Amino acid sequence: MNNYNIDILVIGSGLSGAIAALSAAEEDKKVILITKEPNILSGNTIWAQGGIAYKGKNDKHTIFEQDILEAGNKNNYKPAVNQIATKGPKLIEELLIKNYKTPFEKDQNDRLVFTSEAAHSKKRIIHCKDQTGLNIQNSVIEQVKTNSNITIITDHTAIDLLTYSHHSLDTSDIYKAPSCFGAVFLNNTNSQITKIFADQTILATGGLGQTYLHTTNPNESRGDGIAMAWRAGARCVNLHYIQFHPTALYHEKGRFLISEALRGEGAKLYDVNGKQFMKEFHPQEELAPRDVVARAIHKTLIKTNHPCVYLDITHKKSEWIKSRFPNIYEYCLSNGINITQNQIPVVPAAHYSCGGISVNLNGQSSIERLYAIGEVACTGVHGSNRLASTSLLECLVWGHIAGKNAAKDIKKYEVPTTKEWVEESTRIDPALITQDWLTIKNTMWNYVGLIRTRERLHRAQDILRNLQYDVEKYYQTSKLTPEIIGLRNGIQVAVAITSSALEDRTSKGCHYVES
Question: Quick one: residue 146, left, alpha or beta (phi over 0 = left, psi -120 to 50 = alpha)?
Answer without folding.
Answer: alpha
